[in-house]
Amino acid sequence: MDAFNRSYLRFLGFIAKSVFVPVPIILIWEITYRCNMRCRFCDARLLNGKYYRNEFTTQEGLMLLKQATDMGAKLLYLTGGEPLLREDIGQILRFAKKIGMVTMLGTNGFYLEDKIEQIYKDLDYLRVSIDSLRIHDCIRVCNSAFENALRGIKLAKKMGMNIIINATVTSETIDEMEDLAKFAEDLNCGITLSPLVLKFRGEGNSGIDFSGLLPEYGDYVLSVNRLKEKYPCILNSDPYLSLVRRGGIGYAGIKCKACDIMLSANPQGDIYFPCNTNPVEKINLKMTGELKKVWHSKAANHIRREVKNYNFCKSCMDRCYVLPSLFFSVRGICDFLRHTGHRRRFF
User: Fold this and answer.
1) Which domain holds residue 185?
2) What is the CATH number of the domain that holds 35?
3) Mean pLDDT score of the chain, rounded to an integer?
4) CB-based contacts of 63: which residues, under 8 Å, 6+ apart?
5) pTM confidence score
């Protein structure tokens, strides 16, 4: 049984507790919105200039991790922007491992070669974005994006890191999914084929319309189900694909647990409720100083009661939030126990 399977089983005890009291088992920290790319489908590039300033300092970030683990956090997922642009990324990961967290980081891979010495010892899972074998640089609006990411992946493999390639599937790349799966198989990496979904952060949104890039979700599900039989490296789970086919978490009959088991933090220390995809409320940790007060605040508890009534939640397919909700549901637990070996897919 690999580390992720063991971690999942260990988390189940905390999930049982969260039925009665919300426990932030997972911390999703957008550690910076700075990025060297201008991906055509990424909403982070729509944010205005204030979101690139006043980021958490190193000490403030370590305080966030310590307070989160004191409350029960077990998994840290660092995302962005581009997390490797943080000069203190190695220090943050070392501290997270020191206090017992499972660590995961999502990157575009451009700076992997430069930063790998700082991160490889303290990172349990590395997710690298490769969206196309044909037009990756065009999608990312960055020269040599594919070449640099590939070199970084190969180096990370040599250093024994657990790598998951993540491909954002759009209307332009849906026909490339088998090529991407073969690419991951040749590199001996897992791959997640993630359909593009619309998500906006509200403030700073310029109103750019991404709808033309959305894949046809029915075709996406049929293709991935077919490819999974041929390529065991594809990590997309049956419950997630079923959710996409039905049109979102609400239509799949799953209760969103974003407010109950996940903490969403942005670079400036705002804690989002219910999540950073649909931030109904945000409370700044710098202003309050105590994460426990934020987590159990009246505003947060109100949103927990109302989340089932939010229409935007029903159609949500954002992997960061629906996957934990799926796999810490009764249906998800049963699916985990029903499968063995490579059939145990979490993504």
Assistant:
1) 3-343
2) 3.20.20.70
3) 88
4) none
5) 0.90
